[in-house]
Amino acid sequence: MLRRTLLLGLCRGPLGRGLGTHRGGSILDRDGKMSEIKKKIQSILPGGDWNPLYDTSHLPPESSDVVIVGGGVLGLSVAYWLKKLEKPRGAIRVLVVERDHTYSRASTVLSVGGIRQQFSVPENVQLSLFSIDFLRNINEYLAVADDPPLDIQFNPSGYLLLASEKGAAIMENNVKEGAKVCLMSPEQLRNKFPWINTEGVALASYGMEHEGWFDPWCLLQGLRRKVQSMGVLFCRGEVTRFMSSSNLMKTASGEEVNLKRIHEVHVKIDQSLEYQPVECAIVINAAGAWSGQVAELAGIGKGPPGTLQGTKLPVELRKRYVYLWHCPQGPGLETPFVIDPSGTYFRREGLGHNYLGGCSPTEEEEPDPGNLEVDHDFFQDRVWPPLAQRVPAFETLKVRSAWAGYYDYNTFDQNGVVGPHPLVINMYFATGFSGHGLQQAPAVGRAVAEMVLEGHFQTINLSSFLFSRFYSGEKVQEHNII
Amino acid sequence: MLKIIVPTAMLMPMTWLSKPNMIWINSTTYSLLISLISLSYLNQLGDNSLNLSLLFFSDSLSAPLLVLTTWLLPLMLMASQSHLSKETLSRKKLYITMLIILQLLLIMTFTATELIMFYILFEATLIPTLIIITRWGNQTERLNAGLYFLFYTLMGSLPLLVALLYIQNTTGTLNFLVIQYWAKPISATWSNIFLWLACMMAFMVKMPLYGLHLWLPKAHVEAPIAGSMVLAAVLLKLGGYGMMRITILLNPATNQMAYPFMMLSLWGMVMTSSICLRQTDLKSLIAYSSVSHMALVIVAVLIQTPWSYMGATALMIAHGLTSSMLFCLANSNYERVHSRTMILARGLQTILPLMAAWWLLASLANLALPPTINLIGELFVVVASFSWSNMTIVLMGTNIIITALYTLYMLTTTQRGKYTHHIKNINPSFTRENALMALHLLPLLLLSLNPKIVLG
After folding, report:
1. What ipTM score was computed for the predicted complex, to two decimals?
2. Which one of A129, A257, B36, B407 is separated from B54 by 20 to 30 angstroms, measured CA to CA?
């Protein structure tokens, strides 16, 4: 009551109106001091957070239950599901720390945005199936009161994976439960898609349902909006340090293990030396291409190689190019996302005969990931020839633009890392998806949230994606990697 | 009385002059010795009070509270050791000094004869508590919490000063022993109503009464462990003690005036218990449960029958020990997991079994299991309020059920179930923590053998 009258007096009373709120400014507000004083008084009154020594409104809070390092689609998805699945509402305080608030280098927004279920690993198929269900019903999941509904512009045109003689057998084996895929011979292929040149193609698998591409920026913004409405705090800063405490414990077989837990995260504010130690109980590493560096900060991988302590998180930056070209005689509206046996891929973009595409370079010709400069010679040498061979109409095309983005490339087996680290026990991973992270993000977010809240995976069992496989050497090999 | 006050005051130079590795040991042992001295005051002679000097006295109401206060100091010191371990030496000594000053003021408050002296010390206890909360609390919100705490109590107690001065002028004395006999019955005229309100509001805010309780969850959650302990255990009882003393002067206006506050307390009791069911922050849950228990005490004091007074005193002592123990348990959780959210640290029974035993005992005491004095207190209050009005039994019964519900909810969420992955490497319980819990529980259990000491 007291506060309300004071606020009324300060904001809306005749005195308040006369001082400092006029467009022209009154004599008393010549230096803008009055509005500053008013702001200061408002922050002092009970209800605002006030530090008597200096203004801390730009810093993250001093403590948070969960700190998510990385605010891309995976980080936001984990935040969303944590807030959605917590039993009493509002129980957990979540802080998302994102270094790049324009997302200029984030893999999410530079992605081509495809989603498919044609994977060989069954968990991948299940992840994509749930994600497409999420995307189809996105306005039920991510609805925020008074905000317009999201339109992620999902084009359900399907994926067309072409296989040569060698790959045909693998492709036949890969048709998995739950994915509606149709295997086509070259004859059927020519009938369905007359613009394709089927030379060298032995078998094609065409996804009939739930596959296509969508707008990743819209998903990111939708998640961001929803997650903010659920009470997750955002901080624009960089994680520079983890303070952890360790305990020497003995396993059941008697050998000694050093289990660490992170109890504080130092978040450094952009373009400043200021940092804020955030006390936390759980850290989620969703830093995408930079997850390896974040893991090293936590001390993962510091130890003799070959031991569990010495196993690093094998996620590194890999640069990939995407080119946008215009070809008026190109394939029409029913063009699926075509993946050539040579590794080149393209898809239709929009309704004006524009196409997006690229190619994954081999190990030897990996570009330098130091910057996001585009190499146009790569298009001339490695992307265009296979494209022109596969789709003769593409012999005459004009490249309109190109960009480069990073894959959070898992050098071990190119599949994601999900779940806690065995030694740093309160760091959970949600990274390393090597190019198919965007399409699996909703499902992975749910899996990590289940792991944090319940202690085990409930809906989709991702135990083959745990960190411990890097130590035990069990690769989860995916045969359909772009 | 001097034999308690002077040693407590002397604890301060002892802390400042101790060697760095001896400060905790010295202060804890000597404060434990002082509490053993104060036990002698429990030997009360019947109806009269034990008059020790012109300034200090103790009777069967203030003696148990005095013993509780002195008993808590060593416990607070034991509990604070771990979170202060990273501070510099002089900060540690300053913290201990604050606790000792608070202790001194509280001892004098509980044994004051003169009501003005009681008032001055009552206000003075706010200062060290405020310093402890705002300087050593955990989050930025602690400044907000400190402000709420300070201003709520000050606003309530300013009218009390005016009222006390007025009574001094009219009755000629405020010495408690004399005024019992000199107090004139006051009827419910307008000026007397204001007098009644002025006297009672300070204690209502302190208790806290349901409508004025906003400062309590904030202060408890943001305070460091010793601050929470002393707040829950002793400072709330200051309100109850003050109310019991001052109602002697206010008869029979209390009969009409008490109604709104009775309603607020009865309703607030059920409301705050229900709020506890939805709390996710462990300390916040215990804070709201404090409000709920104290509402019972307010009801008891306002009814003013011998049984209700006995119930109120027993409940105050019991709640002091139980609440303080629950805060210590919550703090031991917080120090390991660095989060106060209950659902993030589950299944502790498999990892820390002895601590689980303490959790169980504290929870059972909180839900007023027979034969603890919690039950005796609650039972006496329920019976007295039933005789005041038959309908209150419904609300009281509801409150007892909901108390059991949230206490068991707290117990099962933190102890039972599968433990979460990220608490696998928490430190095992320290001996200090186990000793702390045992020292909380021991008086509680022993008192159930001889509750007559606390029944006032």
Report:
1. 0.84
2. B36
